[in-house]
Sequence to fold (325 residues):
Amino acid sequence: MGPNGAGKTNLLESLHLGTQGFSPRTRSDAQVIRFGEDAGRVALAGEHGDAPVEVEVTLRARQPKRARLNGAALPAAEQLRTRLATLVFTPDRLAVVKGGPAVRRAYVDRALGRLAPARASLPVEYGAALGQRNAALRRIALGLSSREALAPWTERVASLGAELVAARLDAVRLLTPAFADRAEELGVAEAKLEYAAEPPTVEALETRERRDVERGSTGLGPHLDEIGVLSGPRDLRSFGSQGEQRVAVLALLLGEADVLAERSGRPPLLLLDDVLSELDVTRREALLRRLPAGGQALVTTTSREQLPVEPAQVVAVSPGEAKAA
Fold:
């Protein structure tokens, strides 16, 4: 709790950095370090399930960030996201519904990584193969390569693309029932996710090879798919109100939290920034009632009066300080 500009969002950002290894606001570590300083550090201690956990993430200008989990150094800070689950809502997350298809693909791919860690690398692997195929297409267009050199990348894109489509379909099937339930409670009826993609095949990619060479890019595959967020027949991106779009994003987050808790037995940490300001009292109550039992959620607000239920703890935030109120 605290006035605008006091640092509430910075507090949530530090918790996300300390549990996921990266900021939800920027991928530039230099923008996370305090202005005028050349280093920063986040240290957290708590419990994960029944086990104690300690995390430390250190950032230094022009150096890779470092992370330690229970005293052991991790090869990469972002490996924290495979050990600890954190979901965050910030006002810019409305882009998941309001933005273009790439934002929704990225959301589902991140959810896929949390729901099925063994498949978390699929989007990156597919993106790398796609980049190689596009580079090969451009070399062919310039007369620097042959179509035979394209064939292995066509096969790789088709294979990984089919795996990625199947993984996304599984993630959407897992998320949709919980998303629909949470959206209904928050006042959006018949909510659903829609993903009707077809996996790419070698034959389909070869059929459009000439067009791909002319354009220098692959015009078929899951990198172009749309994932719809709907209420009944209405696509909420085009035909949803601002309030419905906000509720849909919150319902996605709460629904995923339910699925993660069910699959792992441990609710994720929820970070909800400025989530109450545009919700009426009924929806505020419904939202806070649905926070996962046994888990931890941090909700920022400018005043205690905005909270329709009694919080377990209130932290007063002022510039450079956070303390129990």
Summary: Residues 151-185 form the longest helix (35 residues). The mean pLDDT is 91. The chain has ten helices and twelve strands.
